[in-house]
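Handout, page 2. Input:
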Amino acid sequence: MDRVTQSILTEFSENQNLANDPQEKQFELLACYSLLHKFCNEEFPPLDFVIGAGGDLGVDAAAIQINGDLYFDSQDVEQALQGAAECKVNIVIVQAKRSAHFESAVISDLSDNLCTLFKGKNAGVHSNPDIVEFKKSLDAVFDVIKKLRPMPHLYVYYVTTGIVGSDFLDEKRKAACARLSETNFFSEVDFELIGATELRDLYKGTQRQHEAHFTMEKKFTLPKMPGIEQAYSGVLRATDIVEMVTDQEGNVIKSLFFDNVRDFQGMNPVNRSIGDTIQTESRRQLFAVLNNGITMVTRRLDNAGDDFYMSDFQVVNGCRTCHVLAAFRNYLDERTYVNLRVIESKDEDAISAITEATNRQTAVSDDDLKAREEYQKDLEDMFNSFDGDEKLYFERRSQQYGSMSIEQTRIVNRNQLISAFAAMFLGEQHRAGRYTKKIREDRKEDLFTQQQDPLLYYTAAYALYRLEWLFRNGRIDRRYKIARYQLLAGMRVAIDGRNMDLPRGNRYSQRYCEAYLRILHRQADAERFFGELELLLDATVNANDPSRVLTRDLVKSVSFSDEFLARVARSDKWHRN
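Output:
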């Protein structure tokens, strides 16, 4: 391995707290993280997409992207497909080897194995549980073929520390593409060789904040305002908007819309109507007067005449417009314009006010908007109040800490926070690791409310961080990782019994959370505590059948979670509140 790649691998392993892993595993995770970041701009634990060794068909990591979100688990995939009228699907396969050269046999074997996997009725008797689960996810995709627009795009990556460029290997790569295309499961197939140079570029790309270059000829400058560095209002070609909000693969960059109050609702009647406008030539040219337009807030904006550069920006209003434009991009031409306001500000109060004001047009109440913004700030302040090993970073906006040298495993985004909190305190442990959008919809009255002390969210986040640390460092066997949310729920029951009522008021919340944090903030105590829960988990798995093993299907079962938590409640090992 060359010196530069080694330095990147060392940096990545330190950021992900993987120092105790063998270098081969570190390299697999680096390849997985760097490549999947092309498809997902949010932070994610790469271990969730890595395939276990043995019976893996030569696949080291795999993911299914549905309408911009990454999945592995089959039930996650099923729920994502059920919740959408139409689906754009990408399937991503990664094989990574530390070898300093590419092997033609690896390309042939991987394409053969994948053809067998895609065409077979099952994953094969010798496949490991992760491959079996991935096969279920693939079947779920192809079972709803009428929703797929177009058929899935397959991306296969073979990663080494070598140099790309051999004509012979390129012929092998093209043959693998042709073989996979002949399965007729995919609209397109890309089989790429990733060497040391390409991997370094991909990894560096994971650390960049959102940036865009554009030319806005028809504009005017807004007057100076408190908290605003500069602001412009004008019109921009719709094709330029699409380029700004999509990645290299043409997917909408979801993390650009963190500050937008409403998520995209799919192709509902209103959005289809906007699409109809775009598809009709005469009305397409009127788009700038038929649509309210887009508001973007950026932390940095430079311009020279009509040419602009901005970085670390968010779309605070216009989520729907951006998504529909991207969906119907093939109809856009140089005469299709969109109203655009670009505002440079580093003042968080000003940014919140802009978000609140621009979203008053939607069916979101003023109180909801104000409460949402204030509570997100309270969460950030709570996380920032801890230091040293107790420190976590709440990512209120995408790539908020991208320019800082921070251990990535300590950064918690909203989806991760919802999963941890829902598992630990809302009784959603059986689906917390799955389709978080469904939890947000079903439990919206129980999430991020002013009555909840932000310390509860920090406690749940730190419990998940500590548990992931124990998995990464081999203190708890990684085979229990699929049951991590059951273990979080188990901690709540061990400390507080089956009582699901959360404390009201800061004084009671602090006393309540202190019982958890006394354990979690001490590594050895946390290891002993989760070790006891691990034994009870094993006892639950083997209660009626000693040959039964812990599987993804088992941990999704409500009855299994109930049985495990009942066993925790009966145990005399705990000193409860």
